[in-house]
Design brief:
It contains 15 helices and no strands. With 306 residues, the protein is mainly α. α10 (202-209) packs antiparallel against α11 (214-222) and α12 (227-251) packs antiparallel against α14 (270-298).
Length: 306
């Protein structure tokens, strides 16, 4: 297990370094931030002095090395616009993003797992057809369209929930449902296909022959063997949910890291963008590491084969 963990952590560190490097160099291809930060009538000498003061005159590999050394210590520099720590500007938005992501994941799992099991047990029935329609429509609907429809129905017409904002549990319901409904169909189809495969196995028939209840057969014997791919896909969906949070946060005016990062990209605020992408990458990689550990504990064969 120790060798498995060391190898996995090493791979994830390489992934984080790769993401930080790609983000850094792509940002510098978007344009010169000096042009946006200084007045339009600034002279060349003034622009050059500012570029030297900010370190933009140095080669990119030196700038990246300076950024990497600071990032390891938690120092991502100061925002080019707000003159505040880029890390603190992003970190203060992180709880809102994580809350929305976790809530969306809970809704996705809470909807997908029961529907997937029911769809497999009622194969080719009317319920199975409804679940299939739900899976197809859930992936076909643009996430921003679903969010707008929920706002129109529950916030504008019924006046049951707030349309935007952050602070109470009522504000969380609509964006969490939007995010969860976008990811639930994938998990539901995975649970259904896995359950259909294991329900025909000998150990399931043996469990039924022993006189166990159908719920015990489905949950204790069948679903237990479907958990590994489900846990894996949930870990991968965590990153997708963080990505989907960009649209969701925009629609519902949710003050998260995604909207902050998008605004920083628009303003070419390099330190804030780098801090946001770096922190999001660390959270995604950490969740993937946790998933790998859980899967490795459940199935030791995975530790041996990796």
């Amino acid at each position: 297990m120790r060798t498995y963990l060391v190898r996995t952590v090493g791979q994830l560190v390489i992934v984080i370094l790769g993401i930080s490097m790609i983000t850094f160099f792509l940002l510098h291809l978007t344009g010169d931030p000096v042009v946006m930060l200084l007045p339009y009538d600034a002279g060349k000498e003034e622009m050059e002095r500012f570029r030297v003061a900010m370190g933009f005159d140095q080669p990119l590999y030196i700038q990246y090395w300076r950024f990497l050394k600071g990032a390891v210590q938690g120092d991502f520099g100061r925002s080019l616009y707000m003159e505040q720590s880029a890390f603190l500007l992003v970190w203060e938005r992180m709880p809102a993003t994580l809350l929305l992501t976790v809530a969306g994941m809970v809704i996705a799992i809470g909807v997908a797992v029961p529907l997937g099991i029911i769809s497999a047990v009622k194969r080719y029935s009317f319920i199975d057809n409804l679940c299939t329609i739900f899976a197809i429509s859930g992936r076909a609907m643009p996430i921003f369209w679903l969010g707008i429809m929920l706002i129109i129905v529950f916030a504008v017409q019924l006046r049951m929930l707030p349309a935007s904002g952050y602070g109470t549990w009522q504000h969380l319901i609509l964006p969490a449902i939007t995010l969860g409904m976008f990811q639930a169909p994938i998990t539901m189809r995975l649970v259904r296909s896995g359950m259909l495969e294991v329900l025909n196995q000998d150990y399931v028939r043996t469990a039924r022959a022993k006189g166990l209840t159908e719920n015990a057969v489905l949950l204790k014997h069948a679903f237990k063997n479907v958990c590994i791919p489900v846990i894996t896909i949930v870990g991968l969906q965590f990153g997708q949910l963080l990505g989907g949070a960009i649209v969701t946060e925009t629609v519902f005016a949710w003050p998260g890291v995604a909207t902050k990062t998008v605004d920083a990209i628009r303003n070419q605020d390099f330190p804030v963008v780098q801090a946001g992408v770096f922190l999001l990458a660390i959270f995604i990689v950490s969740v993937n590491l946790l998933v790998d550990v859980i899967v490795g504990v459940i199935d030791p064969r995975i530790r041996v084969n990796t």
